[in-house]
Every structure is written in structure tokens, then in C-alpha cells.
Amino acid sequence: MAQRPDGRNQTGAASATHSTKKIRVVHTVPSWFGQLFSGHTHYVFGLLSGWRDRDVSLDLWGTSVRPLNIGSGNLDYETTAQLWAHENVRHGRFRRWMTYASRLTYLVAHARSLDIVHFHNLGWDALLSPLLLHVYGRKAVFTMSLQGQDNPSAIAKSRGGRWAVKLMRHFDGIIALSPLLADDSLACGLRNVILLPNFMGLPQLERGRDMSAREKLRRELSIPGDATVLLFVGAVIRRKGVDLLAESFARLAPRHRDLWLVVAGPMSRADFPGLDEETVRALKERIDRAGVASRVVWSGMLRDKNAVASHYSAADIFVFPTRAEGMPNVLIEAVTMGLPVVATNLPGITDFVVADGETGFLFPPEDVDALTQTTERLILDPTLRAKMGQAARARSKRFGFEEHCRQLKTFYLGVAGNPRRIESFEEPDGR
To answer: Are residues 225 and 253 in the same domain?
Structure first.
């Protein structure tokens, strides 16, 4: 039986149906993909590192990158081809169009050696690729990962968006990470749309919270053993609602002297291109003015997945006041670790992971009062935290790696054969 890199058996990827010819799927990403801290980055490299199947092979086209949280730390994933020379190709209109031309040229040269090209970003080269690949009898699929950015109704409002949506309809399959993205795609006339959320990509978390790691990290961070710890994981950017979290903590901390906040994620442009460092400074100033800076830990970028697991173990409540998402991996990680969650209610996205009132609480977007009230309810009730944490861990099983691979393989087989037969997948167990 095939083994995952962490030693666990993978039983779900292979099916009883065996193709006479191995299907080759090539994932293609922009050159900056590996440098970007995002759930989708983790998803792609986690999938490529863990995939084991004799009917479908996965490769990656792009520059050499350093993926995040794969292995025990700094593990390089060498790609099949050097498509782009350096990470700055995305800057400037001329360089961007040269990159588009490079990828299209490469696809023409190698089209006969592959079966499916799987895109993870929607530049004009990706939009034109299905037309090109169809000339050679090859297929193109796309993963839609962020509401408001790569979903068709949002794209339609941008410059040239109507043409972009028309081109999207030529993809042979669309993977939507959340029900909202799937519904939006179907409403805009895209075909072969499936709902397939991300899998839980950190194997350490499946074992649950590690009490020894909890105590060790709290000592390292100078957090008292009996403190109540709020945890946020993600880039420190406005879209993630960290400003709302800072305001809420500034209100809560004076009322709860044993309350701490840990923020784990990129805080500089070096770790997250495009990050507004002035926003980070403003957040720290807000915490300072409230007089509670001594109880806020800024952990910064965590490249080692063992460190990520330790942060979840050290926490009591996971808080995620995000403004926009596709399918946030951190929510999947939090519920897997048995943490009660307080998150923004984004219908068709966050409520797919968090059952309001059962595994945590969902509050209206931008509502700091509701964020504060729901968080305080969990702070005051350890019994409720434990009950919700247990329910969260049970619910997390629907996001298993093996089930994800099984459904993804079924999708690829359908696209390679008769894509019109693949209309939807059964939803993961437990929805």
C-alpha cells in the first residue's frame, strides 16, 4: 500500500478503476507562488508532496520555489521546468505579457506529453490556454480559491472581465473550494463545476493537541500556564480582519487579566509581497494605547509545520475575523485541533467549516461588538470551550487528505474521458 511522506497509509487515492494509460496532470503556478504565504500555496505543495497514485501523475511547471510548512522546515520542491527566470517577472506590464507568452509557448511545445493542465491563477495566458490545448486534444482545469478575486461574477466587473468570463467557460473543469464559489460559477454559465474544499494539510494536527508542546511553547513565549490564549493564524493584512481583532482584544484584555493573544503569520513584505507594513505598525500602536501590549505575542512567519502545530496546541480559542476568503485552511486546521472558533460569517464559506453554536460562533462582518461578545462568551465558559472543541474535531474528518485525493482523482479521470459527465461530487461526509 502506498505511503504518505509522514508514514501513514493512503487508501483513498486509488480506485478500482484503472486507466489503460497513466494520466499526466501538470499543475502550473506563477513564479511568485512559492514566496506567497497563503492557504492555496500550502494546498498545492501539500498535494504534490503527498500524492501517490498509479493511474494519475502530478507534476509542477514553474520556477524553483521554497514551499511553506512542508516537511520539517526548509524543504525545496524542485519543479519540472524552469519557466520563469526570477520572481520579479510579475512586475511591469511588459514583463507580465512576456511571462504570458512564455507559458503559452511552453504549453504548445509540450502539449503532446501531457493530458491535463491544472491552473491556479487566472492571467490572460491561463484564460487563453484552454483554446490552445483543445487544438491538441488536451484538457484544462482551474481551481477557484478566493471570493471577490477569481470567481466569475467578480471578474466580470473588472476591465475586460466580460471577455475573461467567456474564456473561463472553455475550461474542461472548475474546482470550487467552497459552496459560494461553486454557486457563483454555475450562475455565470461555467461547466463541470465541482465542490472540493481543501484538505487538512498538516499531519501533526490529526493527532490533536499536544499538552507537552502546549506547555513548552507557553514557557518559550512567557505565557502563564493557566492563561486563556486567543490565537490568530494568517497574514497580518486588512483582508484578514486583524484590525478588528486588535480592537476586540483592546476591549477584552482589561476585563480579563489572564487573557493573551498570539498572532502567527507574516508581518513584513519579505514574507508576504504586497503586505502593508504601516498597517502592522498601526495595529501594534492600538495595542500599546490600550496598555495590553505585554499580553500580545507576535510570532511572525512560521515556516516549520511543527511550530504551527505547537501554536495550535498552546491556544484555547481560535479567532478569525476575516473579510474575504475562498476556503480558509486555518479554519480547517483549528477545528482539526479541537479548538472552538470565533469567525466572520461568510455564507457558503466559513459556515461550511464552522457550525454556528456547535463548533464555535459566527458573527456578522465588520461587527467588533459581536466579535467581542462571542469571544467573551467562550472566555468565561471553559466547559463550553471543551464541548465545542470536541464537536469541531469530529466535524474535521470531512477534510481528510485521502478523501480529497479520491475525489480529485475521480475528477481528473472524468475530465480526461468525457468531461460533460462530471457535473458534481458528493459532498464530504458530515456536512
So the answer is: yes
Q: In the structure, what pLDDT confidence band is assigned to residue 294 with cuts at 50, 70 and 90?
A: very high
80 and 214 in a single domain? The answer is no
Residue indicated by cell numbers 500500500: 1
DSSP code for 204: G
Asked whether residue 44 falls in the same domain as residue 97, the answer is yes
Is 11 within a domain? no
- What is the C-alpha separation between 315 and 334, in angstroms, rounded? 10
The grid cell for 155 is: 471578474
Please write down the HEC assignment for all residues of 208-243: CCCHHHHHHHHHHCCCCCCCEEEEEECCCCHHHCHH
| Structural domain that includes position 89 | 23-199+400-421
Note whether 315 and 209 are within 8 A (CB): no
Kindly report each contact of residues 405-408 with a partner whose C-beta sits within 8 Å and lies 24 or more positions away, as own/partner: 405/10, 405/12, 405/13, 405/47, 405/50, 405/51, 405/53, 405/199, 406/12, 406/13, 406/15, 407/194, 407/196, 408/47, 408/175, 408/196
Q: Are residues 165 and 51 in the same domain?
A: yes
30-34, 43-47, 365-369: lowest mean pLDDT where?
30-34
User: How far, in Å, CA of 202 to CA of 310, rounded?
Assistant: 12
> Do 182 and 234 have their domain in common?
no
pLDDT tens digit sequence for 375-407: 999 999 999 999 999 999 998 888 888 888 999
Over residues 66-100, the pLDDT tens digits come to 443 333 333 444 444 333 333 344 455 666 677 77
CATH number for the domain spanning 386: value is 3.40.50.2000
Distances, alpha carbon 187 to alpha carbons 152, 190, 191, 193, 390, in Å: 9, 8, 10, 11, 37
In a domain, 413, yes or no: yes
User: Letter for the amino acid at 297?
Assistant: V
Cell of 7: 508514514
Q: How many domains does the chain have?
A: 2
**Amino acid letter, 367:** D
Residues 6+ apart with CB under 8 A from 122: 142, 150, 155, 164, 168
Q: Does 417 share its domain with 339?
A: no
Record the pTM: 0.79
Q: Are residues 295 and 242 in the same domain?
A: yes
End-to-end CA distance of the chain: 29
The enclosing H or E element of 195 equals strand 193-195
- Whether 250 and 266 share a structural domain: yes
